[in-house]
Amino acid sequence: MYQISRYLQDFDCWFSQLFPDNYFLKGILKYTSFANGTVVADHFREKSENYLKQFGARIDQGGSKNRYDLVVNCTDMIVAKKFMQTKTIWVQEGMIDKPTLLTGLVSALKLPPYLTGDTSLNGSTNVCDIYCTASDGYKNYFAGMGTDPAKLIVTGIPNYDNQQQYLNNDFPFHNYVMVATSDMRETYRFENRPSFIRHAVKIAGDRQLLFKLHPNEKMDRAEAEIKKHAPKGSMIYGSGNTNHMIANCCELITQYSTVVYTGIALGKKVHSYFDIEELKRLAPVQNGGVSAKNIAQICRGYIKFTGKKEDFLKGFTFKADTKPYREMQYA
Fold first, then answer.
1. Is the pTM of this model over 0.70?
2. Cβ distance 253 to 180 under 8 Å?
3. What is the mean pLDDT of residues 205-221?
4. CATH second-level architecture of 2-161+286-315?
5. CA atoms within 13 A on the CB side of 177
6. Numbers of helices and strands, H then E, in the chain
């Protein structure tokens, strides 16, 4: 979102972490721990705000300080009621979880999509006016899940559109088998972590293993499990630049992590709980880092449009920028 705003500096841009605006979700957040592993939790909000403050970005948590002409979302599973009449654009932020039986039930009963407990319905609620997707594969996927195809535009996504840049790094190790874990247990999904570790060990054989833990994981527990089930000397990282680690590995093992797309873009042999061929079809377009500029082009056109919201895309022609943009590096 910050990268997109860099191309909209002539507009008055503000930022808010995703927030609940109904009593049920507010109660869950205030009185239980169920939301601690989700983006609405305070520790994630604080992390995002600390990032934004580095660049002097203005923060309006909850969107209450101003009346906004356009709201850009990275999820359509929770859209504040106050913005339902506002112009809205949805931007894909990463991988979408596999649909489950619960996904089908929630969808069929028209229940709030966040009740799936995962991101399987993100991009599929059709409540936003425009949907910016990572690739043609994802465009087709969201259309199949119920989003109006006329709303879907392939722009690429800023955090996964220029993976070649990570080949130039100062991470000191090379040619290891990397394991990128997921936070399934922290988000109340079942995982047999010892079995997964042993599976990774089998794939690696006699090669060096490097484990990069998901930032949302309980680090002490994860490290203890790795030390118990992986060879002595396996490297374990709870922080650090994941993309640089992937760039230097010889093989990548993932569970449900979006970083598998980094491995695919860099030509690594990858493993995932998703079907690999499907992941290759869905993989974000590599356009040299112009996705934010593409999305900003749509934002600019839509803000200036004065007609009915449903008429904008009928007359708007999107022309993807194909010239790699090298001036602005990823923060």
1. yes
2. yes
3. 94
4. 3-Layer(aba) Sandwich (3.40)
5. 21
6. 12, 11
